[in-house]
Amino acid sequence: MSYPTTAVPGRIVVISASVGAGHDGAAAELARRLTAAGATVDRHDFLDLLPARLGSLICGGYHQLLTYAPWAYQRIYAATEHDGDTGRLTRAILRHAESRTLRVLPPDTRAVVSTYPLASQVLGALRRSGRLPVPVLTYLTDFSVHPMWVADGVDTHLAAHSVPAAQARAAGAERVTATGPVVNPRFGPATAAERDAARARFGLPQRAPLALLVAGSWGVGPVEQVATEIRDSGAAVPVVVCGRNQALADRLRALGIEHAFGWVEDMPGLMHASDVLVQNAGGLTSLEAFASGLPVASYGCIPGHGRTNAAALDEAGLAVWIHSRDDLKPVLGELLEGRLGKAQRAAALALFHADPVAGPVAEILGAAATTAPEAGNAPPPLRRPAVRRTAIVLAAALATTMLAGPETTEAAVARGGFHLLHDLGR
Q1: Contact 10/371 with Cβ under 8 angstroms?
Q2: DSSP structural state of residue 111
Q3: Which of 79, 355, 369, 415 falls 20 to 30 Å from 224 in CA-CA distance?
């Protein structure tokens, strides 16, 4: 099926999830571009569509899992990487999220876009059952595609590059289009004057090479180790963004890492000031660095999607994956001054369309054009008693898992509690 490249805009609903910042970041930029093209855009957080306000509990549990039991996250990710099985607890939650999702879709909805894998699973189920008569598109925010991203019933999966597109097809997606990434236009290559001004604003040295180390909105992973290794290598001065983890920023300063920031509003400016990005998760920050003309290295990657994203980015020729401390200095040097850095910059900048109403936006508008106005169905009534009973059972299972001591952690994983946190966290 081929969509037209131009379309009359209508109402488009974008569903993301406030888990970290990558899913919401992609949703925000898609919404901005669709609105600029004349569409009416509604945005929803999938966590708000879960029964009995379980979203905040699940998000917090996922955060704790990444912070205190990354080995468990790696085990779960590997166990589900081949078949994408959600487990019984997650499937029960998703079934109850279906009616809630339908209720937030106005009758004049022309298309629905998901930037979160579990939202795609719900939307795909609604599409298969005939309860959702409008096209559903999934925008893949990661460079590696866990099978959970591929939902039967979704009309189109949109990928930033041919590597994730191929992975989505291998996972069973029927229609996949490599459309390029979506990044806010504030991210772009800096002139020498912009670079100097940005360094002055952030209080950074004017002449030293700067390695921007970003650890996501939660500041997870071996950030202290990586920052000190970059400093001790002598290849560059580390500039660390710790997200909302202010305690991490304080610890880094205590270790002598002078340039450690918490949450940064002006990330485009900080990228303008920097010479290379060192990342550990492979999400939105990497795409922003590509748009800014920064070479990218993956190092000290977090388990699960951090490692698979690093492998996919390396395969695409967009970010080299540094596996050992011994390789850190020579590879950073090659990225800063050698052919590798130049090749990566060229490959990264080639991903982006000059026309903002192109790539994924054109696909979404084209899908919306295939839907007649007022085509939506009235949502079914919400069966609140059943939702409450299920939510109580699920909350109890979650609490049991999250409060389990070290001696019972593996048993908790086997029972599926951590599977639930993983599935709804990714």
Answers
A1: yes
A2: E
A3: 79
Task: Kindly report the pTM of this predicted structure.
Answer: 0.83
Q: Reply yes or no on whether the pLDDT at 320 is more than 80.
A: yes
Residue 426 β-bridge partners: none
With H, G, I as helix, E, B as strand and everything else as coil, classify residue 342.
helix
The residue count of the chain comes to 426
For residue 37, what are its two tokens?
């093209």
Provide the residue range defining the domain that includes 252.
192-349
Tokens of 117: 């894998």
Measured CA distances, 331 to 183, 193, 222, 296, 398 (Å): 26, 27, 19, 11, 43
Q: How many CA atoms lie within 13 A of 321 on its CB side?
A: 18
Beta-carbon count within 10 A of 256 CB: 10
Same-domain check for residues 174 and 225: no
Point out the domain boundary residue: 349, 373, 394: 349
- Please give the backbone phi and psi of residue 139, each rounded to the nearest 5 degrees, phi first: -95, 115
356-388 pLDDT, tens per residue? Answer: 788 999 999 999 998 865 544 444 444 444 444
Among 298, 331, 349, the domain-final residue is: 349
